[in-house]
Amino acid sequence: MSKVPKPVSGFPEWLPEARRVELQWIDIMRRTFESYGYASIEPASVEEVSVIQAKGDDADKEIYALRRLSGEQTADEPRLALHFDLTVPMARYVAQNFSALQFPFKRFQLQKAWRGERPQEGRYREFTQADIDVIDQGSVSFHFDAEMPRIVHKILHTIGIDNVHTNVNNRKIIQGYYEGLGIADPMKAIQIIDKIDKIGPSGVQQMLMSQMGLTEDVAQKCLQLAQIRSEDTGFIDQIRALGVSSALLDQGIEELKYVMDRLSDLPKGSVIANMSIARGLNYYTGTVYEGKLGDYPDFPTIFAGGRYENLVGTYLNRSLPGVGISIGLTRIFGKLLKEGRIKLGEKSPTHVVIINTPESDQNELMRKAELMRKNSVNVEVFHEPETKTSNQIRYATRKGIPYIMFASEGADEIKNLETGEQTAVDVASWQPDRHNTYQSRIEPSQRCSVLPLAVPGPK
Amino acid sequence: MSKVPKPVSGFPEWLPEARRVELQWIDIMRRTFESYGYASIEPASVEEVSVIQAKGDDADKEIYALRRLSGEQTADEPRLALHFDLTVPMARYVAQNFSALQFPFKRFQLQKAWRGERPQEGRYREFTQADIDVIDQGSVSFHFDAEMPRIVHKILHTIGIDNVHTNVNNRKIIQGYYEGLGIADPMKAIQIIDKIDKIGPSGVQQMLMSQMGLTEDVAQKCLQLAQIRSEDTGFIDQIRALGVSSALLDQGIEELKYVMDRLSDLPKGSVIANMSIARGLNYYTGTVYEGKLGDYPDFPTIFAGGRYENLVGTYLNRSLPGVGISIGLTRIFGKLLKEGRIKLGEKSPTHVVIINTPESDQNELMRKAELMRKNSVNVEVFHEPETKTSNQIRYATRKGIPYIMFASEGADEIKNLETGEQTAVDVASWQPDRHNTYQSRIEPSQRCSVLPLAVPGPK
Asked: Could you report the predicted ipTM of this complex, rounded to two decimals?
């Protein structure tokens, strides 16, 4: 028995009934991305190490490099590694295929990424991300800064996740404000402010003073900005009240106002202008996003992104700005599964099992099954005519298959295993009750793959 | 310009218009697998090296091992590697989740695999496989030996690939026949016979004589078996005519006869009983399959598989036989793309672009777009009201988007960019002409993602 290999920690695997839900989530994501005109691309899982590391930010600590187990490593062979996100590969792909792409280039990627970090809640070594980005030449329309969180909101709502907080900010507000305060190294200050959740406001203030030589007054002013939140454009008056000004700050306010205005139809409280959001990555230059599960405030960010001016164009000496969001599919799915909030469906996609007997005309059963498959009904002819009918029914029940069929010439009958109801049917036109099969239960209009919190979550 | 990283050879990437077709192939595969009751699983991409190597067959030469680029390697950290096929991970997954699964366990996997081999035509370092397997306790019904090639045939037909040769054999025939000839090491003889395509019949005969000490007569008898082909159960008489017999041979003939009989409704010539097929892997014990593209006879096998008794159960000291087929999705797609036989569709999933102007009520355009998305219409509101209408139309044309819409209160009009026809529409109910959008063009009934050979292929 001890010969069964143990699961490798950090590489999640689901049972078939959970995988079915994950696939439906993926379907919803793809369908929603496509409904807004985003096209799928799937760059290789592997990049040259030098390409991945160009992103900087100590990301290399987590990168899985590849080495052939027994083959000779040739000198000219580039060093290869698994990608750790989908943004860097997209930037390289766009640069490489620049002349073949049409701009604005709107793409989505639903793909795995790998990080060699120590697994902990919400962190996996292998995980699926769902990314959307728009890249354009010269400038990218602010239309997309508002569209991104709208699409993410719609996806999560369709899945059944509504208590989501989308925090939005603009790097220009922070940088412009710091400039207005006369801070020489705004980037450094941003990185310190970013620790506010970990070390608290007074810790941040101390760091700003000791590490950057700011006066207590200026450090306080920094903190005051970071504490501004509004569910509408109220953030503007709050910033103005702090009495700091600069041209860059004005521009940032204008941009964030546009995004908040365009999203004002979303449910109250789901979009928050939050001046503490900076995003660690230094390539963001404007709008930044960070999403949290409202039910689990201590759980890590479930989606994040922003606007960047120089990520793609650097390869080509061109201006190719972009804006994008990455959703942590595995992170969200793993958390809700662990919390018992994924409504698990059948263990099989089959709608109906055709009961088989030694007297059955096998070709006739197969023909009927094919007829039903033409109408998108998923059908199994039971694989062993010798098996007792009661055991064939038990097989269907154990897999959660909702219907069985008794086939006989001119008098086919289908039995609903949940209600026990049995009726004569025309196999050429029969359809399963769409409320009785999992696949239909998660249609967008139904949205019940995620159960509501049984106990109200912490606030 | 030289800053653009080069593509890494063996890691294929497609442009959006090709990726759209690949996604449709994946949809067809998934839908077909599900229509026969196969459930998706997705084991991790990574296994412990010892698990992968247990399969033997020098496979380790091609395995990509993982190593964190900068992290310290800890002593207790298992050595990890990317899987090189989907069968070994499935076996490990079934063993690990044995008590949670229902048998017969029918699963499919549509997933990537990696091999560190030198890229050449049909061989990639990263590729997608589409696998189906059935695993059962004690014994697995022969129903599935016939179902596997039927499903693969249906998938390829739906995609538009009809000239496919499915070669079927049974290991018991070869082993039983060799036993009947008194050959001590049938496995060794199988491996030599397997080289018949490479070194020809006389080369094989020489090897059988020199390496196994067979007489010329016995070696000839081996070759005679390997040369038997039939498109029906005619292979039986041909084997009997060779005058060799054994109980195992009889059993193999019986099993292969069952499969050929059950597939007799498939188009003539698409299924071939072929006594030269052995499959190199030593875990096959009964039925074996090997598929070829009829138009490209020198191109490698496009799908392969068979029946195995001991792959899964070894972990558990149980009998868990299975039967399965693996389709080389990337191999087939890459070949047909290279041959210019993939009908490329639009560069975008969008059906209609709503023309935007400085006078447009932005909220109203957004509302109309959402209304259309509810009916599964993919819509973009053009992202820049300031852009000239002619340039907005050019954007749609360049991406291959089939429709544009002029929105105005109570009088929305949609223009078909291909025919030039413009008509008043009700946005709440409008649907694109399903023959005018790529997504519908590949509906199973239409099957036109693959073009017929312009020039008849070699025979």
From this structure: 0.93
For residue B415, give both structure tokens.
């223009």
Residue A284, helix vs strand vs coil: strand
Tell me the C-alpha distance between B276 and B279, whole Å: 9
Residues B44-69 have a mean pLDDT of 80
Mutate to test the interface with B, among A82, A84, A102, A318 (most CBs of B within 10 A): A102
State which amino acid sits at residue B371: L
- Smallest Cα distance from B263 to chain A, Å: 10
Q: Say which amino acid occupies A266.
A: L
Question: Which domains are delineated in chain B?
Answer: 16-69+76-338 (3.30.930.10), 352-436 (3.40.50.800)
Pick from B36, B116, B144: CB nearest A71: B116
Angstrom CA distances, A316 to A43, A285, A323, B232, stand at: 18, 19, 18, 60
Which residue, among A338, A340, A265, A332, has the nearest Cα to A304 in the 3D structure?
Answer: A332
Going by pLDDT thresholds of 50, 70 and 90, the confidence category of residue A140 is: very high
Q: Is the peptide bond before B104 cis (omega within 30 degrees of 0)?
A: yes
In A, which residues are within 8 Å of B12 by CB distance? 44
Is A7 exposed, middle or buried, given 0-12, 13-18 or 19+ CB atoms closer than 10 A? middle
The CB-side HSE value for B386 (13 A sphere, CA atoms) comes to 3
Whether A152 and A327 have beta carbons less than 8 Å apart is answered as yes
How much is the pLDDT for B76? Answer: 52
Distance from CA of A63 to the nearest CA of B (A): 5
Q: Across the interface, do A3 and B50 touch by the CB < 8 Å criterion?
A: no
Q: d(Cα A401, Cα A424) in Å, to the nearest integer? A: 19
Indicate yes or no: CB of B384 within 8 angstroms of CB of A143.
yes
What's the gap in Å between the CA of B262 and the closest CA on chain A? 8
Average pLDDT, chain B: 89
pLDDT at res. B187: 84
A156-193 per-position pLDDT tens digit: 999 889 999 999 999 999 999 999 999 988 888 888 88
Q: What is the pLDDT of residues B265-279, one digit of tens each?
A: 999 999 999 999 988
CB crowding B244-268: b at 16 or more within 10 Å, else e: bebebbebbbebbbbbbebbeeeee
Whole-angstrom distance, CA of residue B246 vs CA of residue B234: 19
Q: Count the Cβ atoms, other than its own, within 10 Å of residue A446.
A: 13
Spatial distance between the Cα atoms of A286 and A41, rounded to a whole number of angstroms: 25
Rounded to a whole number, what is the distance in angstroms from the first to the last CA of chain A?
46
CB nearest to B51's CB, from A5, A36, A350? A5
Sign of the torsion formed by the C-alpha atoms of B451, B378, A154 and A138: positive
> Can you spell out the DSSP letters for A188-222?
HHHHHHTTHHHHHHHHHHHHHHHHH---HHHHHHH
Which range (A187-191, A328-332, B75-79) has the least confidence? B75-79
A299–chain B nearest CA distance, Å: 24
Q: Do B398 and A11 touch (CB under 8 A)?
A: no
Choice among A129-133, A189-193, B149-153, B222-226 with the minimum mean pLDDT = A189-193
Is B8 in Cβ contact with A19 (below 8 Å)?
no
HSE of B102, CA atoms in CB hemisphere, 13 A: 17
Residues A347-380 have pLDDT tens digits of: 999 999 999 999 999 999 999 999 999 999 999 9
The residue count of chain A comes to 459
pLDDT of residue A343 exceeding 90, the answer is no
Nearest CA in chain A to B24: A40
Residues 6+ away with beta carbon under 8 Å from A391: none
The answer to whether the beta carbons of residues A91 and A76 sit under 8 Å apart is no
Among the partner residues B3, B116, B262, nearest to A68 by beta-carbon distance: B116
**Selected residue with higher pLDDT from B100 and A410:** B100
